[in-house]
Every structure is written in C-alpha cells, then in structure tokens.
Queue: 4 jobs
Job 1
Amino acid sequence: MHVKLVRLRFSLVFTNLDGINPKKIDDMKKILLIIFILNAVFAYAQEPLEYTDVVYLKDSTISKNDIYNSTSEWFVKDFSSAKDVIQLNDKETGKIIAKGAYHISPTLMIGECWVNFTLTIMMKDGRFKYSFTDLYHTSAHGKSYDGGDINQEKADCSGMYMTKKAWRQIKEITEVSCYNSITRLTETIENNFKQNEEW
C-alpha cells in the first residue's frame, strides 16, 4: 500500500515539468522519493503496539453466555496478581475490561520487571474479540529503570540501563505472553463447553 501511495504522489508531482533540465528532474525525483519513503517508514513506526483479533471457536454453537462464564473463570485463574484489577464486568453486553501485568524474570540482559496492559474481551455467540492496549514497562528496581510505553523505539531508560537488544527482547516476550494468554482463554472456553456437553 505504501509503495502504491508513493508512486501515485510521485507521478502527480512530475506531470508538468516541460522545459526543465532532465538531469535536475532526475535529482529531484530521487530526493522526493527518499522523502516519501522516509515518511511512510516513520508513519509505520508510530503505529501503536496493539494485539487485537477475533477468535472464532471450533464450535460455533457456544453461546455468548457460555463464553462469558468461561472467560470469567479464566480471569480468576490467570489474573491472580495484586497488579491485576477487573475494571468492567458486564454480562449483558458480554464485555470484560481488566488491567494486568506480565512478570518478566531477570536474565543476563534484562532485570526483573513487568509489562502492564489493559485487556478488553468482547463476546458474541461462537466468537470473542480481544485487545491488549496500554502496554507499559516498569522495573522492580525503581522508576529510573522503567522503560515506559512499549510503543517507543527506545526505552525511557535506554543507554546504560536498557540496551536496544534488551528492549526488543522485552517486546518479543510481551508478544508471546499475549499469545499464550489468549490460547489459554480459548482452551478454557472450548474445554468447559465440551465438559458440559458430556456431563
């Protein structure tokens, strides 16, 4: 999409350049093309790190109510930390919003820390939608070591306290943690429904 956009703008800029030195036109094209590409890259880099998708369950007959009950059970089991707080729990609309935090154990590159987040689950018959937002890194060693907003290219504490490689690794761990959470949620919903059917 970015390439098509660049080409479209590129062709519009150079539609009326009769009488100008061809070499100057080529130089101008190169400069403007670089500007367009950098703008596209910058826009892409500024997109927030947000994990969201719709999960379609294997059995489409699982009702919104069943999904809600299993999701509530999953929250109790998975959100057991003192940092975890359910902010909205609406059975009628099938929506749960909670704040949580993934604990990251210390490694050679990373000190003990958490990645805080807001998780929104919206439910309908046979499916649910999840969204992880407000992803924010905090350290166990004080605010001076906090990385801050995960969307940032560099951590707030970058440099001596946080290398680029360590910051990238924290983002990768966060992505895997989000994926594993939704996998467990999906399994809880489907297994509960299966057990209720077999009872």
Job 2
Amino acid sequence: MGSEEAEARRGPFKDLVALREKVKAKKPDFVRQESWRYVRVKESWRKPRGMDSKMRLQKKGWPAIVKVGYRGPAVARGLHPSGFREVLVHNVEELERLNPATEAARIARTVGLRKRLEIMERARELGIYVLNPPRLPVEEFELEEIEEEEELPSEAEKAMGHGAGRDVWEMAERFGVGLTEVSWEMLESVIHKPIAIVRFRRLR
C-alpha cells in the first residue's frame, strides 16, 4: 500500500486520534498490587481493597491507581484508530445509512461470504471504508519431503501457484464476471494454494 493510499484511508478524526494517543502516552501503567513481587500475581489491573493497603491509601512511592481523571479526551472516545467512527453493519441497507465522510463499516461476524461480497461491492460504489474486508478461506498444503533446505522457498512457491488474484476485484476481472458473481466452481478451477506449510526433515 502506497503512502497516498494509506493517507486516503485515514479518517477525518485522525487529529483527535493522535490527541488520544498523546494523552495516553502520559498515563502511568496501572498494575496489580504485589504483581512485581509474586510470579503467580499477574499485572492485569485489580483494585486494591486491603484495609492497610498502601496503594489504596495512595502513599508516596507506590504505583498509581485508576481514577476517573485519567480518562481520555471526550471528543476522541469511540473512534477507530483509522480516524473514522466505527459502525457495525449486517446488510446493504444498513450500509447505505452510513456517512462516508465520517463513518467506517465493520461487517458483523455472522454475515456469510456471499453477503459480505455484496456489502463490499456496494461500499466501493458509495466510497465507504470497510474495516474488515472479506477474505477467502485459507487452505493448507503439505509438500513432499525434500533433501535440501535451500529448496524450501522454491518448492513452496511452486506449490502455491499464481492463484486467481490478490483480492475479489482481481478475481472478478480475471473471470470476466461481476464482483458478486465469482463462484466456488470458478475458484476451484484455479490451481492455487494461498499458504503452503512445509515440513523439513533433515536426513541423517
């Protein structure tokens, strides 16, 4: 991804996100009491409740405790790191209600692949940024045993093949169909393994 494309995907609230990060950098690390003393006690925050707890009493030299005053800027709350306001969508109708200038879509996890492609195509037409674009399932492939370790990269590349394309748009262009018309039969006709898992056994 080029610098211009990355800049274009940054939302209108990028300055507020930067402000939130700047404020957060000045906050102390809130750790659980005695986590630095015992291995069994993790650092994840727990409120100290002991009657004589020095942390609860906020004695000098003890770690800071969580207070409402450490909260981040109100204007930056709920913003996605990309600079957009994140909105969960389940279908195309919900997508069309978004404001492309300030809001980004996140496709719900219960949405199937076919509807994800429809949402993605409509989002591209409306100029809406999708935070989790659809990805094709990963298929594992095991190579045959080889003798030389130096042959691993070339053998893995040979097994993976060129594929149908890097994304759904390249696939649709290759098959000469619409974005939502790419079928599993078309993809299965292409000899390609997205990821090749190789196992190397050193010969004695």
Job 3
Amino acid sequence: MLFNSFPFISLFLPIVTIVYALARMYFGQRMAQAFLLAASFFFYGYAKPSYVPLLAGSILFNWAIASWMGSAQDHAGTSESRRKMLLWIGLAANIILLCSFKYVNFFLQCFAFLNPQRLNLPNWAFPLGISFFTLTQIMYLVDTYQGLNAPSTLFDHATLVSFFPYVSSGPLVRSRVVIPQFKSFTMSVGRFDLACRGLYLFSLGLTKKVAQVFLILGAILPSRHLKLDLAAQGDRVNGFPLPGVRHAQLEQKRRGRGKAQRFRPFNLEAQIRHSHPHSPCRRDA
C-alpha cells in the first residue's frame, strides 16, 4: 500500500487515526497500541501477505537476543563475554538475512553463467522494507548492548519495528526515541494543532510526489527528481497524526533535508544544450 494511493489516503489513514484516538480515549493506551500494531501488520501484508511471517520472525528473534543480553547483564562473572557473543549472533543473523535476499540471486546467476549446465534458480523477491526493519533492529541490539536503552517488551518492540509510517520506506528509528511516545503524550503543543500541522506536511509531501509525474523532472533533471522524492517521503512521514513519528522531522533536519527542499528555477534551454550537444537550441560562441 503506497502513501499516495487511494486506499491509503481515503480509507486506511482516516480509519486508523480515528479508531486509535477513540481507543486511547475510552479503552486506554494498551488497547490503542494493540490496534496500532494490528493495523501496521495489515499495512505491511496488504500487498503480499507472505512477507508477514518474515517480519514477525525477525521481530521475535531480535527481541529474544536483546532480552538475553539484558538477563546476562544481571549476572556476574562472564556476563560481558556472553553479551558480546549474543550481540555478534544477532548482527550475523540480521546481515545474513539481508544479504540472502539482496545478493544470493546475483551470485547464483553468475555461477549459472559460468556453468554450462542448466540450473533452476530460486526466485527470491526482495521483501518490502527488509533493509529498514533489519537495520532498525541492528541499531536496537547495539543500543541495548551499550546500555543506551533497556530491553523492550515484545509488545513494544513489535510496535516499534512494524509501525506503518516507516516500516516500508524509513527513516531508521531508535527504540529510546519512539517507544516512550506510544505510552504518553509529552509534547507541549496541543493535539489539534499537531493534527493541523500533520495534515499540512502530509499534503505538502503528497504534492511533491504527484509532481514527479511530469516528464521534465525525470528526463532533464534526474537529480532534482530524486531530491524531490526524498523530500516528499520525509514530509509525508512527518505528517502522520500518530505517535512515534515526531523524531523523523528532527532526524531529517539533522541530515540536511532542508537543502533538498529548495527548488530553484532552471534554464531549460541551457539544460537542453548541456544534455544534447547537437540540439538546435545550442549556440556556438
């Protein structure tokens, strides 16, 4: 499900926002977070439900590794060596999972090209958002090992990793930044004001995304097309009126996203002369 698709804009996002607000108001934070977790898994599996077990297995494995690291820290003696071993096991498993889908097909195709015998290669499609939720959990394991955050419960960790605004397209998040926002509202700005700002940012990002359909952006200015795409993604994620995404705006500012939003006028004739030296628009000095 794409952020600029009709089902997401007209059905999924309004329903999730309204039901989450009502559940938090009448049934408490835990019930609202449970609904948010279910909605995030539905969002992830909407296009291809077969990817949901992969996401769930990755969440369960990394949560177990972090929990074991936390329990090893409570015991004296060989706790440090055991925690380091668990960290390496978690990092190796995540990297192997990521490389399996990214590079196994490539190496098998190279082997099939060198080997004259006909081979039946597996068709491993690249799962949606595997890079983002894998790297997010690698950061979680490292932060847990360094003592920057305590091991989360399975409920909180699953909500953190599968949260639909960033599970498929980022940005990367940290447990100690997002999970407290699920539990309590800590911002000084009112909820209505935040909802208005979120609607503005989401509309701004959607406008930037729709603007990419113009051929001139893709054919003449591919670099600006990429910058506009990144800026649109950041605005749409920051605009979701739900907890857990407030950090995204700060992270994007830290990475200099504001520079990507500046869209200056350009000289079309100069671009054509630069891209096509033999064009009639080219003038010799």
Job 4
Amino acid sequence: MSDTTVPERRTDDLEPDAPARAAPDPTLPPPPPGDTKWDDTTADEDTSFRYPDANAYDQTRLQEPADAVVVRDQPERTKMIERDTLWSPSQIAPLAGGVVLIIFGLSAIIKGGLGGAVDAPVVSVFGYAHTPLLGLIELGAGILFIVAGLVPYGRTVGIVLGVLTAIGGGLILADLNWVNRHLTTDSDFGWILIAIGGGVAVLLAVLPRVKTHTVEYRPTT
C-alpha cells in the first residue's frame, strides 16, 4: 500500500468569500414584531435580518393613509374690463338750452292747439307772441339739444344746432314779413334764441373734453 500525500491547500487559492455581513446598528430601532417586509432574504443568500435605511423607515412610518384627501384653495379666476368715458362740462349747456326751448314749445302748442292751421292762433308764452308752428320748431330743437347733451360724441351736433338756433333768432330779430305771419310778431324774442344758440355753440367749442379710463375686475363663472 502506497502512501499518498495530500497537497496542502493554500488559503490564497480560494475564491474570495462573500462580503462580511455588517453588524446591526445599535442606534436604529428594532423592527416591528411580525413585520417581514424589512427582511431581505433574496440578497446574497443572506437569511439574517438586515436593517433598512433609517430615513426610508421614518418616511414609511409617517406616510399619510391612502384615503387621505388634501384640499387646496384654488385661485379665483377673474376677467379685466376696461372702459373709456368721454365727457365735458359743456354738455350742461345743450341740456339747459333744450329744456328752455321745450318749455316754450309745449306752452305754445298747448295754448294754441293743433286742431287748425299751425300758424294760428297767436298766443302769449311768457310775454312773447307765439304760433303753434313756432312751438313745434322749439319743441323739436329742444329735443335735439338734449340728445346732443346726453351723448358724449354729440359735441359737433350741439354746435351745429346752436348756430342754427342763433341764425333763427337773427331772422326773428330782423322782423321779416314771413316771420310775423307764421311764427311771431315779437322781434325781441330773437334775442332769446340768439342767447341760447350762441351760448351752447361757444361753450361746446371752448370747454375741453375729459377722458377717464376705468379698469374693473369681475370673477368669471
């Protein structure tokens, strides 16, 4: 029987062992009893308990329940409305002139009536002789003056009406035969029309217009 010699096995020829398992960190809290989700049994065939990351553990414990509802205030949606307004203090002039003419015209129509000829009879309105025809002209001119005073862009119309009224007053002041037969026999009434028409035209032409810009915010539906 021959003697066999078993060669000595050198430790440096062996394959390197798996990384040594780190000892549990005594500063970390122990795992929950019966909770196996922290057991890492698939890595490196290591069946020993492994502590998870401390931050992940704390975040998992503080995680909100799945059915939690978080309500946040939504910003209110609004729309911006810009508006430009054009007006002038001279708009008071055609309004006042229109009121005076309407009063004269209605008084002449009510007193004289419209049942017959419009140029008869001749009635007295505030001391001045009027026919129903002159009352109709005054009523129409007064309405146009008021419209021009209410509309910001009626400045040009108001100036034209003022000039025409002043011209009419000049014709009455001239004491023409047609005016005496159909409108009035009092030439002095022409001064009233000249004052109303000329005053409205001058004020509308001289006084400036003011433009205001308004911004308004409204909630949208």
